[in-house]
Each structure stands twice: as C-alpha cells, then as structure tokens.
Amino acid sequence: LRAEGLERFDSPGKGRGLRVTRPFKLGELLFSSPAYSYVLSVKERGCLCEFCFTRKEGLARCGKCKKAFYCNVKCQKGDWAMHKLECSAMTAFGEKWCPSEMARLVARILAKKKVQKERCVSEKILLLGEMQSHVEDVDNEKREMNEADIAGLYQFYSKHLDMPDHKDLLTLFSQVACNGFTIEDDELSHMGTAVYPDVALINHSCLPSVIVTYNGTSAEVRAVQDMKPGDEVLISYIDLLYPTDDRNNRLRESYYFTCDCQECKSKSKVRSSSDPIEPEVINNMVRYARKTIREFRASKNLLEMCEQNIDGAIRYGEKILKPYNRLYPPYSLNVSSMYLKLGRLYMGMERHSMGISAFKKALAIMEVAHGKDHSYLVELRKEMAQK
C-alpha cells in the first residue's frame, strides 16, 4: 500500500508506520490529505465558514438554525449533508443542545460511512476502520467520558443516524480519541477537529522528521529535515517543551506507549527538569499572552485595552522566546506562532521595526512548515508591507 513517494511498513518496536521511498528536501510537501470527516468548533461559529474553514467578515448564516455560517451558497450546499445532522436539532433543543466536539465528529463519521462505500481519498494507505483504538487500554475515567459522549450521540443525533451497536461505538470513540487531529490556525488557536486516516498512520518521535499543518480542512505534511529513501515519517504527538519523563507520561496517558527516540534515550541535558524555567511557568505565560492577545483582538481599539497590558504581554512573549528557541526543534509551530503574536502586538503598538523583525522569524519557520504559498504567508507578507 503506497502513495507517491510513500509506503506503509512495519516499524520496529512501533507497529505500523509510514516511510519515504524517495528523497524529500527540507520544507517539501510529502502529501496532502483531505479530512475523512471534520467539524468546526462551536466557539468559532460566525468567524469561520463551517464548510471550508475560511476566516472572514460577513459570512452568511443558515436561514433555518441561524447558527451555522458560510462563505456563500456553494459552501452551504457542500456542507448540508453534515449540517442537516444538527440543524433542526439545534432549533429543537435550543440552549440544551450541547454534544461534545467528539460526539459531533463521530456523528459526521457515521453519516459519511453510510454513503462512502469504497475507499475515500483520505484513506490511500490506511482505512478509517484500521486506525488503532486501544479500546482495551481505556481507563475508567476515559470510559465514562466515552459513555457520556455516546449518550449525547443518542440524545442529539438518533433522528438522523442508524446507530451501530454499543461495542462498535466505544471502539469508534476510542479510535477518534487516539487518532483525531486538532485543526489549528497560524497562532495555534483551535478551529476544529478532524480525522485523517493516512496521517494517523504516522508514528511519534520527540525528534520529528515532518510537521502537520492545515490548509482549509486538509492536512499537509512537510519535511522539517532532509529525508532519504527508507527514512520513517515521524511527527510529534505532544508538546515538546516538557522534560523527558513528563513527555512520556503524556504519551502513555493519551496514546498508550512510551517513546524511545534518541531525545528520550539520552534524556538530553538541555531538558532536565532542573531547567530554570519550569514548563508550568511557561504554560502560565503562554495562557496569559494568549488571553491578552484575544482581548486585544476583540477590542481592536487600543484605548479600550490599557497599554500596560499589551506591554506586559510583549514582555512575556520576549521572555518566553528564549527558552522556546532553546527547547523546541528548529522548525516549531509553537515558536512561529509566538513570533507571530509578538509581531502583531508590536505592530498594534506602532513599534514597526520590532514587529517586522518578529514577523521575519515567524516567516522563516512558516515557509518550511506551511509552504511558501499558504494563505497565512500571503497574509503575513501583507501585514509586513503595511506601514
């Protein structure tokens, strides 16, 4: 089973995996995969088109439920097969309509499976049903969450879906928990959740060889180092900021395995837990910076938002980038998104040269991770040209 330049293989100690059969250069696209199914986050409604995830002002809303927004009639028609699962239910339940994002995605997968009889374009190498479920490893807490999601599925979707039996539903929820991808924007803000079976075949490493970014609702996989034939395609499943033990606890908790990449074996000195800046401190900084930026974006008017807050966020960003640059791999979206936020804050404060220099650093990473022609880069170059 192979796609252009790629093949599935048995990865020693890891189970199935994906490797390249030809050389790929730094920044080169290995493959692009449309989503098998996807769903826009409820909190992003009105900001993004439900169908193509384009962010723009003046989206048109669905006349029936008044909750879903689209670029135009074409997008609305394209989305109807999925939106109809929720349209009348949202009206009927009103405030009580509250399925989890996971349940919403599973509902869409079930609807799609019903009409999708042959292999889908997102399953060139791995079928949806072949995704790992680890259903036997699920602990009580996760199982209770799955049961609650299943209850939500019955409550809000039973009118439109033929439900498989309980065991199959549990398996599907577990598969989506292990293999689902969060679709994020250029600042790593959560836009929605999706499944990409072919991308789900890729194993984890704390020294990844590729990075996954999103173009609309499609996932794109690009090399973050030069690759030669036979090299395994590896992404990072988790935030790489943490020391080895923390990373492995997270991997065990969410994905049921322990990593034995070089980085974990050597427990590299740089990341010892005695690091002067603890991950928690950094996390709090990031949360603070994100919150400030959200408020800043919401207010758009700098007078509304006191300048010291923005100054505080800028100082945080500058402080955080030192450990970020040291601890993350050379091409990291965590780093580029931080430079992007910082650049936008500088520009908002009329500190243009500082803004441009932060933008340039973001650009250097994003050209590799997102590709030179991505709409985010087109936008960014426009922001840099504004005086």
From TrEMBL:
<keyword id="KW-0805">Transcription regulation</keyword>
<dbReference type="InterPro" id="IPR050869">
    <property type="entry name" value="H3K4_H4K5_MeTrfase"/>
</dbReference>
<keyword id="KW-0156">Chromatin regulator</keyword>
<keyword id="KW-0479">Metal-binding</keyword>
<keyword id="KW-0862">Zinc</keyword>
<dbReference type="GO" id="GO:0008270">
    <property type="term" value="F:zinc ion binding"/>
</dbReference>
<dbReference type="GO" id="GO:0032259">
    <property type="term" value="P:methylation"/>
</dbReference>
<dbReference type="InterPro" id="IPR002893">
    <property type="entry name" value="Znf_MYND"/>
</dbReference>
<dbReference type="Pfam" id="PF00856">
    <property type="entry name" value="SET"/>
</dbReference>
<keyword id="KW-0963">Cytoplasm</keyword>
<keyword id="KW-0489">Methyltransferase</keyword>
<dbReference type="GO" id="GO:0005634">
    <property type="term" value="C:nucleus"/>
</dbReference>
<feature type="repeat" description="TPR">
    <location>
        <begin position="336"/>
        <end position="369"/>
    </location>
</feature>
<feature type="domain" description="SET">
    <location>
        <begin position="4"/>
        <end position="238"/>
    </location>
</feature>
<keyword id="KW-0802">TPR repeat</keyword>
<dbReference type="GO" id="GO:0140999">
    <property type="term" value="F:histone H3K4 trimethyltransferase activity"/>
</dbReference>
<keyword id="KW-0808">Transferase</keyword>
<keyword id="KW-0539">Nucleus</keyword>
<keyword id="KW-0863">Zinc-finger</keyword>
<keyword id="KW-0949">S-adenosyl-L-methionine</keyword>
<dbReference type="InterPro" id="IPR001214">
    <property type="entry name" value="SET_dom"/>
</dbReference>
<dbReference type="InterPro" id="IPR019734">
    <property type="entry name" value="TPR_rpt"/>
</dbReference>
<dbReference type="Pfam" id="PF01753">
    <property type="entry name" value="zf-MYND"/>
</dbReference>
<keyword id="KW-0804">Transcription</keyword>
<dbReference type="InterPro" id="IPR011990">
    <property type="entry name" value="TPR-like_helical_dom_sf"/>
</dbReference>
<protein>
    <recommendedName>
        <fullName>[histone H3]-lysine(4) N-trimethyltransferase</fullName>
        <ecNumber>2.1.1.354</ecNumber>
    </recommendedName>
</protein>
<dbReference type="GO" id="GO:0005829">
    <property type="term" value="C:cytosol"/>
</dbReference>
<dbReference type="GO" id="GO:0060047">
    <property type="term" value="P:heart contraction"/>
</dbReference>
<comment type="function">
    <text>Protein-lysine N-methyltransferase that methylates both histones and non-histone proteins, including p53/TP53 and RB1. Specifically trimethylates histone H3 'Lys-4' (H3K4me3) in vivo. The activity requires interaction with HSP90alpha. Shows even higher methyltransferase activity on p53/TP53. Monomethylates 'Lys-370' of p53/TP53, leading to decreased DNA-binding activity and subsequent transcriptional regulation activity of p53/TP53. Monomethylates RB1 at 'Lys-860'.</text>
</comment>
<feature type="domain" description="MYND-type">
    <location>
        <begin position="49"/>
        <end position="87"/>
    </location>
</feature>
<dbReference type="InterPro" id="IPR046341">
    <property type="entry name" value="SET_dom_sf"/>
</dbReference>
